[in-house]
Please model this.
Amino acid sequence: MLLIHCPYCDETLPEAEFVYAGEAHIARPEDPSTYDDEAWRDFLFIRTNARGRHFERWRHTHGCGRFFNAVRDTVSDRFLLTYRAGEPRPSDAELEELAK
Amino acid sequence: MTRFSALSLLKNALSGHKNWPEQWPEAQPKKSYDVIIIGAGGHGLGAAYYLAKEHGITNVAVIEKGWLGGGNTGRNTTIIRSNYLYDESARLYDHAVDLWDGLSQELNYNVMFSQRGVMMLAHNVHDVQSSQRHIHSNRLNGVDNQWLTPEEAKEFCPPLNISPNARYPVLGAALQKRAGTARHDAVAWGYARAASKLGVDIIQNCPVTSIRRGANGAVEGVETAKGFIGAKKIAVSAAGNTSVVMESAGVRLPLESYPLQALVSEPVKPVFPCVVMSNTVHAYISQSDKGELVIGSGTDQYTSYSQRGGLPLIEHTVAAICEIFPMFNRMRMLRKWGGIVDVTPDRSAILGKTPVPGLYVNCGWGTGGFKATPGAAHVLAWTVAKDEPHPINAPFTLERFRTGRLIDEAAAAAVAH
Model:
């Protein structure tokens, strides 16, 4: 059972309260009309699928209902950090510090 | 290499089964090969076997990061069926069932293919309608599938509770009689032994760290824990780790890797004659020849490479089984495990050429790769040997995610595989 920290409720709660919502920091196209088929493929379908540190979205469905971002190691399933939607992606240096 | 027969069994029985020779030799990598296959699961080993047998290409190595058959080949629920909705899928999976039939004889290795039937339950009006649509579509494609009334379903599978008062009443079922199960380890071992006999090197405990490409863009070989190994052609068949390996060749794939868990009970006497799946209640169950109940359902919700998965999913799976078969609610579970499955957006495989010359990929089987083993291996070998896809795997391109020509089995197959 994963224990996940909701950055809005400021509580660490069991996985069953949350729904996974895919890779984080994928920006919607600002001007979709300029997108060709390859750009659409990359936006819609291509994912990092990181083996190791992964930036991902979760939703606190059975709590505040809000989306937030998380950094998780996909080999150990250990969460490094969760942060509110809209906050900038943490830098490698910050994450290295947390991983210690 | 000893040919297995009643005579060789008798001969070895006389010496207490202590003098059986090894089934295939431990191979060390040569400097280079005509073809390198990354991943020694059923798909990779099978492809090596068909390359050697049907295309005369025997200078082949299968490279495996762990031990042979230790990935998803040994981590599934061994279900084999071909009742997929779309024409492309039906052809691919039915090709596999055709090859499963007779595989034991072909490999001289008992893969224990048991056509005990796979029954998919319908619990509500939507299930009945979508099951019947599947059946009609399958029959138009020459794939066997038939509709059973609740009474007929009960006759085929006596443990089924068809009382209208059940929590999830059974309104009928779709039955594929040619479908069934096989012994998954034996599939990997059988292909390994047969391929090795034809000259294929199987190199275990040798992780591939990257794929090396030359100045012209074509593949040159692989960097491994045992050094560089040259290759004219490379086929990647690495399931959940495919996107990591392919990224080293500069190819990004529409894949996400999820844990798919399964569990078995302690062994009991024969109580369960076939495979039963329920997409609505969301679980599937069969009984192995050892007597264990083999149980599975869907993937965990988050991507992971941990080969473990979480307990909430196991709880859900076991709850679903107890809802459908209350008689199992006191069965004790023996062990559970997870495999890392690579899932595509349309839940269909990617099997064919890539933008890199000499690089081929067989991936994206998601939660349903085991059943396809011989078929996927057979057409992958064809694609590598001829540098063009077999008509059966031609629609399963990487290109389809650009053109939009998807094979959307996500909606068609619901959840159970």
Notes: DSSP finds two helices and six strands in chain A. Chain A has a mean pLDDT of 96. Helices of chain A lie at 37-44, 92-99. The domain at 3-26+46-99 of chain A is CATH 3.30.2270.10 (Folate-binding fold).
